[in-house]
Design a protein that fits this description.
Largest sheet: 8 strands, parallel
Enzyme class: isomerase
Order of helices and strands: EHEHEHEHEEHEHEHH
Number of helices: 8
Strand content: 15-25%
CATH superfamily: Aldolase class I
Pfam families: Ribul_P_3_epim (PF00834)
CATH architecture: Alpha-Beta Barrel
EC number: 5.1.3.1
Function: Catalyzes the reversible epimerization of D-ribulose 5-phosphate to D-xylulose 5-phosphate.
Protein name: Ribulose-phosphate 3-epimerase
Number of strands: 8
CATH topology: TIM Barrel
Distance between the termini: 9 Å
Helix content: 25-40%
Bound molecules: D-xylitol-5-phosphate, zinc ion
Shape: globular
């Protein structure tokens, strides 16, 4: 039931193709791709050409997390580059309903993302048009940060909102996820887990990292 999505932000970028193949072989469910623009978040990472390159080396779904201003302007580029899920932050989408609709029009799975300070109320009226909801458990921008515990209550609140509407949208959580932190968000209702340093930085390798997380999530 639990899905693990290694975030390539913590991979060795000089050997990105090999790294993506290695986590794919080691049992990853999705490949999580963190796109940062140096404006919405204080870090700059990668764009459509890298998504396109990653698309060539794995058959797994690419889960593209856009941490950028004006995401509407770039949705088509990421769709063409081979994204399967496109995630946009509620905080930057003035017309969130339109942005999510556009992702669907492009034939992609839509994901709405909430920063740690953003209330679940921000997505109350778009719940029926998303394929995944991502609760950030760190402030986006960097890998290797500490899990923020208030995200657990938020996951619970979103799960209740979904249940009340008989919707079964998967809840994803991103930031500070390891075998030590995964259990509480899993109990709260999250089923899809992003992990960067928890996978790529694990001393016993990628497969062991993901197995430990699955076991700990229960
Ligand atoms: C943070 C990114 C995360 C990040 C997670 O802005 O969205 O996907 O790579 O890294 P860890 O698992 O190390 O917290
Ligand atoms: Zn991410």
């Amino acid at each position: 039931m639990v899905k693990i999505c290694p975030s390539i932000l913590s991979a060795d970028f000089a050997r990105l193709g090999e790294e993506v193949k290695a986590v794919s072989r080691a049992g990853a469910d999705y490949i999580h791709v963190d796109v940062m623009d140096g404006h919405f978040v204080p870090n700059l990472t990668l764009g459509p050409p890298i998504v396109k390159a990653v698309r060539q080396v794995t058959d797994l779904p690419l889960d593209v997390h856009l941490m950028i201003d004006n995401p509407d302007e770039y949705l088509e580029d990421y769709a063409k580059a081979g994204a399967d899920f496109i995630g946009v932050h509620a905080e930057v989408c003035t017309h969130l309903h339109r942005s999510l609709g556009r992702i669907k029009e492009l034939g992609k799975k839509s994901c709405v993302v909430l920063n740690p300070a953003t209330s679940p109320a921000a997505i109350e009226y778009v719940l029926d048009m998303v394929d995944m909801i991502l609760v950030m458990s760190v402030n986006p921008g960097f890998g290797g940060q500490k899990f923020i515990p208030s995200s657990i209550a938020k996951i619970k609140a979103i799960k209740e909102m979904l249940d009340a509407r008989s919707l079964s949208v998967p809840i994803q959580v991103d930031g500070g996820i390891t075998a030590e932190t995964i259990k509480d968000p899993a109990l709260a209702g999250a089923t899809v887990f992003v992990s960067g340093t928890g996978v790529f930085g694990h001393k016993d390798g990628y497969q062991a990292a993901m197995e430990e997380m699955r076991n700990a999530a229960g």
